[in-house]
Amino acid sequence: MEKKVVFEAKNLCINAVRDDGSELPIVKGVDFQVREGEVVALIGESGSGKTTIALSALGYCKPGLKISEGNTLLFDQDLSSMNIEELRQIRGEKVAYLAQSAIATFNPALKINEQVTESAVIHGSKTQSDANQFAQDLYAALDLPNPESIGTRYPHQVSGGQLQRLMAAMALCGEPSLLVLDEPTTALDVTTQIEVLKAFKKVIRERGAAAIYVTHDLAVVAQIADRIVVLYNGDIQEKGSANDVISKPRHPYTKRLMQAVRPLPAAGKKSEEARESDRVIQINGVSAGYGGDVTKNPTEVILKDINLQLARGEVLGVIGESGSGKSTLARVIAGLLPSFEGDTLLDGQKLSPRLEDRPRSELRKIQFVYQMADTAINPKQTIGNILGRPLEFYLNMFGQKRKDRVLELLDMVELPKEFYTRYPHELSGGQKQRVNLARALAAEPEVLLCDEVTSALDSIVGANVIELLRGLRKNLGVSFVFISHDLSTVSAFADSIAVMYKGIIAETGTVHKVLSPPSHPYTDLLISSVPELKVGWLEKADKNIQKAKDELEKGF
Q1: Whole-angstrom distance, CA of residue 338 vs CA of residue 302
Q2: Banded pLDDT at 1 (limits 50, 70, 90)
């Protein structure tokens, strides 16, 4: 017997309303159902309409959008016809939303348990005492440490992966019939992602909830989804069971998505170690931390006796889980965080640990490309001004010469010259990341510090950015410190790898050396935790992952 339909989109059409009142179709006649105990994944590249469709399950449209036609039905109740008070009664009780960023979802000033239980208590489905007990049971079900006391902490006192699971507990506490999960594991490292996926899958199955899972990561979809809906430009290209769509894709766009999936990390051809004369960056015995006097005695030491080198024209991949010290290492190289021990050398010359003590000529040679282009570039400035500022600051370039160079930079990152007068909000995520990259290149650096530059991008856009970086490396001879939690991307792009674990370098060497067995137990854990594009991989891989964890515990 078929299970009950929890949510259904019928000929759903959503339009964007322009300033002049005209309308632009965003979602174009979408039809799909979600049944009890079922996970339906909405996949597609950025701008395909995934999140817009998913939010309609809460009776919500982003500002500037409206449902122009069709219906969104929750247990046969039309959400699109409800007023705000009726929707308020449904949200949190019958349908709940899990956002991509848990840290942005939680209030830092309130304890975790107060926030997890709030919705259930407000809706009257549970007393505070019952909600507290139910939340504690959820913490245990989600494999959180110390389930009896973790709710008494503040959000900043738990890890990113734990906070993501606590956000799931917040959504589940009201026992909703439908969960809307919007890229809930995108920003997590592979080891944390696997644990969160296992916890989500376990709770959804045990509690019989239905779920809409929005993601661009097909390997994740293969582990959690029962059915898949493939979207492009607001249209459904293909839908079916997860096994059918992944193993026997029919539509050309689905096949294109499959081809863009990053290959599993593997040892490549052997490459020579860098000669000393080729080294552009040398890190000798560097330690750094946060809190107190960071230049002498920081409260919390993050990096411990780091030794690394980067050759001219080389890509050094830095991998590790959240909190391992990857971004802190980049901040030390850039001078944003001074080290309290050790030295960083550029072209054989010792750099001052503090950014403000470095001359402009040294600042120019090391440039940072940040993870989130949305927050890294000024929304009030045109692209021309954003790219023109480093030309003025570092190269004393003004007027027509400045404009000509900005147009060259746009061409270098494969953006049209018309973008010169545009603002960031007029660009897609991938285009903004290219502007972010062009701004760093404007200084004509020797070293680019790329901090998770593809982690927030879909597989197709991310692959295009990596291809762009390859071309820039070939044409400009720039060196890269490429920080990522995505081992597949690092292994495909880097020449050498540094594996970081708890603030130390666990293993370093050429890609071939690091990924060829025998590897460090932590490297084995990272490799074992990379999801494969196979339905059922998660259950089969669990044994290997646990074995790698056991080996790691023996060594540390």
Answers
A1: 12
A2: low
Band (pLDDT 50/70/90 cuts) for residue 274 is: very low
Torsional sign, CA 114, 116, 122, 125? negative
Q: Comparing 5-259 with 278-551, is the CATH topology the same?
A: yes
DSSP 80: G
pLDDT of residue 32: 96
CA–centroid distance for 234 within its chain: 23
What CATH class has 5-259?
alpha beta
Q: Give me the CATH topology for the region 278-551.
A: Rossmann fold (3.40.50)
Tokens of 103: 């840290």
Q: Tens digit of pLDDT for each residue in 440-498?
A: 999 999 999 998 888 767 777 778 888 888 888 888 889 999 998 778 888 888 999 99
The residues spanned by each domain of the chain are 5-259, 278-551
Among residues 382, 423, 424, the alpha carbon closest in space to that of 403 is found at 382
Q: Would you say how long the chain is, in residues? A: 556
Burial of 349 (0-12, 13-18, 19+ CB in 10 A): exposed
- The one-letter code for the residue type at 39 is V
